[in-house]
Amino acid sequence: MSFVLTWMGHASLGLETDGYILLIDPYLKNNPAASIDPDRVEADYILVTHGHGDHIGDTIEIAKRTGATVISNAEICGWLRKKDVKVHGQHLGGGFQHPFGYLKLTLALHGSGLPDGSYGGNPAGLLLTTNSGEKIYMAGDTGLFGDMRLIGEEGIALAVLPIGDNYTMGPADALRAVKMLTPEHVIPIHYSTFGLIKQDPDAWAKSVQSETKTKAHVLKPGERFVYP
Ligand code: NI
Ligand code: MN
After folding, report:
1. Ligand 1: distance of its center to the CA of 1 in Å?
2. Domain with residues 3-219, CATH architecture
3. Residue 162 CA: which ligand is closest?
4. pTM: predicted TM-score of the whole model, two decimal places
5. Which of 72, 121, 192, 213 has the fewest CB atoms within 10 Å, i.e. is most exposed?
């Protein structure tokens, strides 16, 4: 079996696996780099890493239109439940076997305040094991942390890492993350959406290629990565 990951711009991702459509951090309406309209996107599940506006984005509207279940930390799920969104709350370190695969929330070094100022709990990364056993690590917004080694021990097929700097890891720390995670493939995200996080993804990919065994893939918004 395989999976298909689509970068929709900034930190928004689409993931198709085992017949399910997942959206991760769907920030599309106000995202200058978005590749698709939030009114047209499809979803069976929406995964939200943390409460910031550029991640929770259009989650409420898309969930209501599509009937998708939102998976996030317990605090964000509590906030969404009050807005009549279907939710499944988890928390850091906890995994659950969903129909699309086994999803574990991982540590992320960041904040998680919601757009209206509500408490959004702790930010998370996502570690998904597909129903055919491939592991996808989507780091979310995070700084570098040494326990990425533990995540790497699981055997990662694809890592999706922020490289924008200022709010998250920059290129140098993201390269160190690749060395700890040792994924088969890596895709950089969360860069060049705005001037503050402008980066050269091709230069970063080159450093990954020359210093590690990982294959780096620079996507344009709307482009897909097909595994294997
Ligand atoms: Ni953030
Ligand atoms: Mn962000």
Report:
1. 32
2. 4-Layer Sandwich (3.60)
3. 2
4. 0.97
5. 213
